[in-house]
Design goal:
7-stranded mixed sheet, 2 domains, Rossmann fold, N-(1-d-carboxylethyl)-l-norvaline Dehydrogenase, domain 2, binds NADP nicotinamide-adenine-dinucleotide phosphate, alpha/beta
Length: 253
């Protein structure tokens, strides 16, 4: 496995790979890019933040583009389509790494879809991070779930200054309302219909597994801002989402 980006996830995976004896070669901002001149076929995890993706893609040789595996949170579909990669291998990471030296906290199975799904899900599982390969349609449910989770707990985290475990325990009503507002956007724009009880249950269970993680509104255009923009375009209501964004000073931006 190759990986680009030596941040929290990139370094945590490096430690797990070393511990379990798994193949892993890390490409950093200024080193290792010659590895991409090798013949195509080895999956390449892209472990940079969303705003850095364009710069990373510009450095990847065309013949290696089909080896890329995207694991970013947030709305990725339009970006990937704009780079002619709508069917790239993708993963949703249901684990958290708080900083560059922290251990990985596992919250749930991490789904993977696409060309390299089998290899990547097996690698993650052997690294101690349960993972499952699946088709794109099933993956879409988890894709939307994680988008909604990070946006919901992000806006609530900033509004109340509480970690995700405390929010799941003490703010179930607001979580359900936000999940409903945001899933309505996902249904309209992405054509993904997630059942509300299933969604809220999974979101709160995941939060209870990584309870001390403090989410916040970050990477606005890819997360909360994407939901706001699409809801506006589609004429969908988002009363609580907008109210909490205002309360946290995130809207109007
Ligand atoms: N952390 C989590 O708990 C978590 C959980 C699930 C999903 N994710 C997703 O995983 C992705 C990575 O998250 P993270 O927490 O590891 O982020 P991070 O700690 O901010 O690390 C990002 C890394 O990308 C590197 N980078 C940026 N531009 C680059 C470029 N052009 N070439 C090479 N490297 C470049 C940065 O390099 P420098 O060190 O040189 O700045 C940094 O090391 C994000 O999209 C995030 O949404 C994270």
């Amino acid at each position: 496995m190759l990986a680009i980006g030596s941040g929290r996830i990139g370094l945590a995976l490096q430690r797990s790979a070393a511990e379990k004896g798994l193949p892993y070669r890390l490409i950093e901002r200024t080193t290792g890019w010659d590895l991409l001149e090798e013949p195509a076929g080895e999956p390449i995890l892209v472990l940079t933040r969303n705003d850095d993706l364009a710069a990373v893609l510009d450095r990847v040789p065309t013949e290696r583009l089909s080896d890329l595996v995207f694991v970013q949170n947030g709305a990725m579909r339009e970006f990937l389509a704009s780079r002619y990669l709508p069917h790239a291998t993708r993963g949703v990471l249901f684990f958290a790494v708080a900083d560059r030296t922290s251990a990985i906290q596992v919250g749930a199975n991490s789904p993977v879809c696409g060309h390299h799904a089998g290899y990547v899900s097996q690698w993650f599982t052997e690294a101690g991070l349960p993972s499952k390969g699946m088709d794109w349609a099933r993956f879409s449910l988890y894709e939307l779930e994680k988008m909604i989770w990070i946006s919901t707990f992000g806006v609530l985290g900033d509004a109340y200054d509480k970690d995700v475990g405390t929010l799941a325990e003490h703010h179930p009503g607001e979580i359900a309302v936000l999940a409903d507002e945001l899933r309505t956007v996902g249904r309209a724009v992405m054509g993904v219909d997630v059942e509300l009880d299933w969604l809220v249950n999974r979101m709160c269970t995941y939060s209870s597994k990584i309870p001390r993680f403090r989410a916040g509104v970050r990477e606005f255009a890819w997360r909360n801002g994407w939901f706001v923009k699409k809801a506006t375009e589609w004429g969908l209501p988002q009363a609580l989402h907008l109210e909490l964004l205002k309360k946290g000073g995130h809207w109007p931006s």
